[in-house]
Automatic annotation (TrEMBL):
SMART domains: HTH_MARR (SM00347). The lineage of its organism: Bacteria, Bacillati, Actinomycetota, Actinomycetes, Pseudonocardiales. Residues 126-268 form the HTH marR-type domain. This is MarR family transcriptional regulator.
Length: 286
């Protein structure tokens, strides 16, 4: 014997559902396959109304969708026999109105064989942030390319390999370093650092000295007089950056903090083992 309570109030449940539908901050459009609207909530009206023509009512969905993106309405009529999300994995973002306005993401869900629910969400802020991120990434690539070009030019002047310039920069900025510390900072393997230091030593730019903190290791330091050869070359870059920073002093701290955060994020997400970045593992079926 099971306990029985009062029968659910179907009218109250329907009222709750309708209240959710009409108060939901996400746009919801329930439409027949031919585009006739069954119901639409205020959020969807607010997002889609800018696409309407003067005097036009939002009573048919297909013309509005095709105005936003030609052929978009065809996405609603596919696979009428299958309920659930239509075109999973496909992201549809449109501008409403098409000539300039908020960015709206549309998702289509078949809730019955003869009608579809369209879910609309304002993603303007998300899209703006994405564009800023892409712009920042492009500017960072430009900085990296410019730095590499400068390093190549400096290497030619000093008569060393470009990787040697990175080691020299590290020694100028941080003073004597162990080979392992140099390896971590400049991103070279231990054997590569050894070869670079050998070349720099032959050029009279660095020398190996005993490490007072650990007799089992050595320190790499600038050779006597090497600073006079190195600093004029590196100072060209430093002075150029200083002039830019002085001209943008109000934002220099923000830029520096952003670059530091990006650098930290890249390093934390890049696990380098044996000089190779692990490739992502593809999921397998089953």
């Amino acid at each position: 014997m099971t306990a029985s309570g009062p029968p659910p109030d179907a009218a109250a449940e329907l009222e709750d559902l309708l209240q959710f539908f009409y108060q939901c901050p996400v746009g919801l459009v329930d439409a027949h396959d031919d585009g006739r609207l069954r119901r639409v909530n205020p959020a969807a009206v607010r997002m889609l109304a800018p696409a309407l023509r003067p005097g036009e009512d939002l009573d048919r969905l297909h013309p509005v969708l095709d105005r936003l993106a030609p052929g978009l309405s065809a996405m609603l009529t596919t696979r009428p026999e299958r309920l659930g999300p239509l075109h999973p994995g496909t992201r549809v973002v449109v501008t409403v109105p098409p000539d300039g306005g908020p960015q709206v993401e549309l998702r289509f869900v078949r809730v019955a064989p003869d009608h579809v629910m369209v879910v609309a969400a304002d993603v303007t802020v998300e899209q703006r942030l994405a564009r800023r991120t892409l712009t920042l990434a492009a500017r960072l690539r430009d900085v990296i390319a410019a730095a590499e070009a400068y390093r190549d030019a400096a290497a030619e002047v000093l008569g060393v390999a470009p990787s040697g310039v990175g080691v020299l920069e590290e020694l100028v900025l941080r003073g004597p370093r162990t080979p392992s510390a140099i390896s971590r900072r400049v991103g070279l393997s231990s054997s590569s650092v050894t070869a670079v230091v050998d070349q720099l030593e032959s050029a009279g730019l660095v020398e190996r000295v005993a490490n007072p903190a650990d007799r089992r290791s050595t320190l790499v330091t600038l050779a006597p007089g090497a600073s006079d050869r190195i600093r004029p070359v590196l100072d060209l870059l430093v002075s150029g950056i200083d002039r830019v920073a002085e001209g943008a002093s109000a934002h220099a701290q923000d830029v520096a903090a952003t670059l530091e955060a990006v650098t930290s994020a890249l390093r934390s997400r890049t696990a380098v083992r044996g000089g190779q970045v692990p490739r992502p593992v593809r999921p397998t079926d089953g």
